[in-house]
């Protein structure tokens, strides 16, 4: 299906895809890349487990598979990113299309950032951020807060902050703002997009619940760590004081009387 949709995009050249064609393109690539991402995560998890157990022979055998999947993922992502740059983004005229394709561009750079390392990971993350911000600027100005594409962008952008940039505060703020604004205008939601919009809003809320609980656990751990260190310091001071008193008492006993 990916090959077929590539031909469709190149055939229309400078013309904008219809909504149906656009969605088919998105689903085609999402299915292919989704299967590869899931496989990579499973195998990487097994590799980490074997490393922690010290099974070097197993690790050497397993390493071949993530590398193969990464090569395939890179090829898939590079393919759609080239289509976006050469055909899809330049030919888009409607705000909805522009946001859709820029979000898509950010998504596939984010998928690269998930497994790339060092300079390549940094570059992929920077390109993701640039694409999402460009999409966000248009979405905030042109699309309703309840529009499923605008909500979908907020969902993906917040996941990027949380998973790639390790910035839970930014992730929570972005997701909460998108959810709150959409809730306040829920009565204006178009009937044809009601199901899609409410589903994405539910995902935003689920992520917020998960992320805020993670932050709470972190602060609880930090609190108990500080508390433990304070108690430990007090115990050490008490031991030092006790030893000093013992030494002082011995000196008094040994001192000549009279």
From TrEMBL:
Ranges annotated as spanning the membrane: 223-245
Swiss-Prot/TrEMBL site (Interaction with phosphoserine on interacting protein) positions: 37, 110
Statement: the UniProt record of this protein carries the keyword Transmembrane helix: yes
14-3-3 domain boundaries: 1-225
InterPro entries with a match to the protein in the record: 14-3-3, 14-3-3_CS, 14-3-3_dom_sf, 14-3-3_domain
UniProt KW keywords: Membrane, Transmembrane, Transmembrane helix
Xref: Pfam families: 14-3-3
Recorded family membership: Belongs to the 14-3-3 family.
Protein name: 14-3-3 domain-containing protein
Source species: Dioscorea zingiberensis
